[in-house]
Amino acid sequence: MLLFFDSDIEANFQNFTFDKSESRHISKVLRKNVGSQITITNGKGLEWKGEITSILNQKVEAKKITSLKHSNKKKHIHLAVAPTKSNDRMEWLIEKVTEIGISSITPILCDHSERKIIRKERLIKIAISALKQSQQFFLPEINSMMTFKKYIKSISHPGLIAHCGKSSKIELKNYNWESEQIHLLIGPEGDFSLEEIKDAISAKLIPVSLGQQRLRTETASILGSHILLIKE
Amino acid sequence: MLLFFDSDIEANFQNFTFDKSESRHISKVLRKNVGSQITITNGKGLEWKGEITSILNQKVEAKKITSLKHSNKKKHIHLAVAPTKSNDRMEWLIEKVTEIGISSITPILCDHSERKIIRKERLIKIAISALKQSQQFFLPEINSMMTFKKYIKSISHPGLIAHCGKSSKIELKNYNWESEQIHLLIGPEGDFSLEEIKDAISAKLIPVSLGQQRLRTETASILGSHILLIKE
Q1: Which pLDDT belongs to residue A80?
Q2: A30 DSSP 8-state letter
Q3: Which of A28, A172, A43 is closest to A103 using CA atoms?
Q4: A106 CB contacts (<8 Å, ≥6 apart)?
Q5: Does A72 lie at the interface with B, CB-CB under 8 angstroms?
Q6: Which residues are bridge partners to B63 per DSSP?
Q7: Is residue B35 left, alpha or beta, with left meaning phi > 0 and alpha meaning psi from -120 to 50?
Q8: Residue B125: its pLDDT value, please?
Q9: Which of A54, A183, B59, B122 makes a 20 to 30 Å CA pair with B39?
Q10: pLDDT reported for residue A167
Q11: Is the CB of residue B143 less than 8 Å from the CB of residue B181?
Q12: Are B227 and A223 inside 8 Å of each other by CB?
């Protein structure tokens, strides 16, 4: 299956015209012809199957064969993570958590954050590319950056905070996840500050450990999300 | 803790002299002085703690304070993976599986492999760097490339083969891991060939699934190793 993405496509569209850049990609790189089948998703569960009807003037057009609405997962992981200093590592993180299928990512600004600005559009582009590659139909929401304090005040579902401090924590692999939504907070390279951990506990977040190893921010994000997903 | 690596250091060394490049790193980048404490491992469980006694002529010397031999894990994961087409993805894979603590990595040459050569020395360098960063004392062994056929003949412990085919498989998360050693085989971008899967089953390997998503080679390697590790 060749999966494309367009945020505007809907189930009732009878025809679809690809933009110039995707059209060139389809005709020149993928070498598709009239009659080839393609699938398009809007990242909100739609699987729109069509057949290419024309390739003219750098525009590829398709007509609908069928459409299907996938039902969303019953359980949702919301990852809040302090962006890594290295852009590459942050992009890798976005790619991987999209591949494994989490619901949202919020970059958070922490006391020890070294990166204070993110390029949201670039991260969305990476998530779309990972969605297409891993053939999924739900694009994780990528939110704007938020301060740690604001984030912990904003959440209305159970939240877990993974930190490396010595205070009492439960092993994430032993945490039984019963709610529909869960928030997982992963800190920056220098960990959450003691004050942030205190504030999180006051806000009823549960401190968790990912094991004995000292994991990088992006590794902790993917492994933490993965533990929750396999216990879903 | 500032962790360094030297494959030759032993518990009974009373003094240690860093090579020129590491010496420069310690004195110029990390700005350590005489009296600073450092820790060195040989990647075989040794934790050698010392104190810098001199920084002269681009040579940093340390004398031993204590040494400790960590005992190895009781269970060992041996990952056999078809190297990804992209070098970057392969290097990430090595970094991440070192961070999470697997015992060995063998690049395998499969029917659908696009990358037929690896730079073993470069991969070892990346593993050492991840070992230091994640503060571990056991360096995974990075083996030379081997054909798939040769690999499955060489293994004497239980082996699992993760593939995307439709034939009967068990979910890796439901696999109970009782042996001391286990082999996990992850295929190339185009998956294992049907013949390889057949050969693996004849060789008593167990076909496993990592879930519904179509995961990239490096993602499957990391998540597969991680599932086994948390069930260790």
Answers
A1: 98
A2: S
A3: A43
A4: A78, A79, A80, A81, A143, A145, A146, A151
A5: no
A6: B15, B51
A7: left
A8: 96
A9: B122
A10: 86
A11: no
A12: no
Does B141 reach chain A within 8 Å, measured CB to CB? Answer: no
Residue B153 is predicted with a pLDDT of: 96
Task: Report chain B residues whose CB lies below 8 A from the CB of A226.
Answer: 223, 226-227
CB-based contact, B137 to chain A, within 8 Å: no
Residue A64's pLDDT is what? 98
Question: Cβ separation of A213 and B101 shorter than 8 Å?
Answer: yes
Residues of A in contact with B100 (CB under 8 A): 213, 215, 219, 223
Report helix, strand or coil for A85.
coil
| Cα–Cα distance, B186 to B220 (Å, whole number) | 7
CB B83 within 8 A of CB B58: no
Instruction: Compare all CA atoms of chain A with the CA of B224 and give the residue at the minimum distance.
Output: A226
SS3 A12: coil
Using CB atoms, which residue from B101, B135, B214 is nearest to A134? B214
- Inform me whether the C-beta atom of residue A1 falls under 8 Å from chain B C-beta atoms: no
> Where do the domains of chain A lie, and which CATH numbers do they carry?
3-69 (2.40.240.20), 76-230 (3.40.1280.10)
- If you measure CA to CA, which chain B residue comes closest to A97? B219
- Span A184-192, average pLDDT: 96
Residue A223 near residue B100, CB atoms below 8 Å: yes
Mutate one of B86, B126, B226, B229 to test the A interface: name it (highest A CB count within 10 A).
B226
Q: Are A217 and A187 in contact (CB under 8 A)?
A: yes
The whole-number average pLDDT for the span B156-177 is 93
User: Which candidate from B134, B216, B226 shows the least CB-CB separation from A223?
Assistant: B226
**ipTM value:** 0.90
Query: How would you write chain B as a 3-class SS string?
Result: CCEEECCCCCCCCCEEECCHHHHHHHHHHCCCCCCCEEEEECCECEEEEEEEEEEECCEEEEEEEEEEECCCCCCEEEEEECCCCCHHHHHHHHHHHHHHCCCEEEEEECCCCCCCCCCHHHHHHHHHHHHHHCCCCECCEECCCEEHHHHHHHCCCCEEEECCCCCCCEEHHHCCCCCCEEEEEECCCCCCCHHHHHHHHHCCCEEEECCCCCCCHHHHHHHHHHHHHHCC
pLDDT bucket at A19, cuts 50 / 70 / 90: very high
Assign B213 a pLDDT band (cuts: 50, 70, 90): confident
For residues A221 and A225, what is the distance between their CA atoms, to the nearest angstrom?
6
